[in-house]
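stage 2 :: seqdesign
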């Protein structure tokens, strides 16, 4: 089976939860966490890649995307930077 070419447009958000950060992709129902917002986002991106590769391997990507309302967009992907949404204020410590 040939791998799909293109990209999908999904939302990635990071929220502070205690002393951890939780990252979520609501469109795919995927989540992860980390000690920093950047780590939580990185871990989420890895989880999404594993999930999408798994769908591709078992041949269910088209069905799952259709059920979730996700549209595969044509390559090349726009050079827009990744947008990150923080749902709660992130504490920032000023350095002297």
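stage 2 :: out
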């Amino acid at each position: 089976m040939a791998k799909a070419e293109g990209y999908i447009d999904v939302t990635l958000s990071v929220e502070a939860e205690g002393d951890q950060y939780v990252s979520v992709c609501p469109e795919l129902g995927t989540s992860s966490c980390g000690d920093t917002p950047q780590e939580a986002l990185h871990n989420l991106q890895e989880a999404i890649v594993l999930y999408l590769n798994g769908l591709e391997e078992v041949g269910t990507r088209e069905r799952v995307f259709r059920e979730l309302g996700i549209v595969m967009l044509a390559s090349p992907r726009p050079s827009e930077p990744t947008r990150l949404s923080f749902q709660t204020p992130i504490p920032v410590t000023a350095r002297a």
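stage 3 :: structure notes
- Residues 23 and 41 are 6 Å apart (CA to CA).
- The chain has two helices and four strands.
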